[in-house]
Design brief:
about 150 residues; Urease, subunit C, domain 1; three-stranded antiparallel beta sheet; 4 helices; globular
């Protein structure tokens, strides 16, 4: 179902190929680009800049993909948390050379975004923590909260 003004679903093609794998002719190079480290910051920047409302972004990247895959979306008491924590004031440029992925390139290189993912929690455990966009007190609080 598509409603004018809505984004039905967003999926990321995280294809983390090394430079040498992509340094081939078009027909011989593996397809895809890195999306894991850019999708959320790019879409949330659209929200921060007033191009789309936050509900539209969340439905497109969380609720509808979960429904499509037959998963339960959202956080429920007693279930393990899968979530991302973002800093909505962390203005920075996308720098592929700093990606944690093995791919160090992006068509969004140099694009300025207004948010940063500062932590990712998978199955109730801290899976990613960015030292760049959070202060020591927040980091310690997150680690303490998730240590149980």
């Amino acid at each position: 179902m598509f409603v004018r003004g809505e984004i039905p679903i967003v999926a990321s093609d995280h294809a983390p190929h090394a430079d040498w794998e992509k340094d081939k002719s078009y027909d011989d190079a593996p397809p895809g680009i890195v999306g894991l480290e850019t999708t959320a910051p790019l879409l949330l920047t659209l929200w921060r800049r007033g191009f789309v409302d936050l509900g539209t972004v969340m439905r497109a990247i969380q609720e509808r993909p979960a429904k499509f895959l037959g998963l339960t979306a959202g956080i429920r008491q007693g279930s393990c948390a899968d979530l991302a924590i973002v800093n909505t004031k962390a203005r920075h440029r996308i720098e592929p050379e700093k990606f944690r992925s093995k791919a160090k390139f992006s068509p969004f290189k140099g694009f300025e975004v207004d948010v940063a993912v500062v932590a990712t929690i998978l199955h109730g455990r801290l899976a990613y923590l960015s030292e760049e966009y959070i202060d020591d007190a927040t980091r310690k609080s997150l680690e303490s909260l998730l240590a149980h």
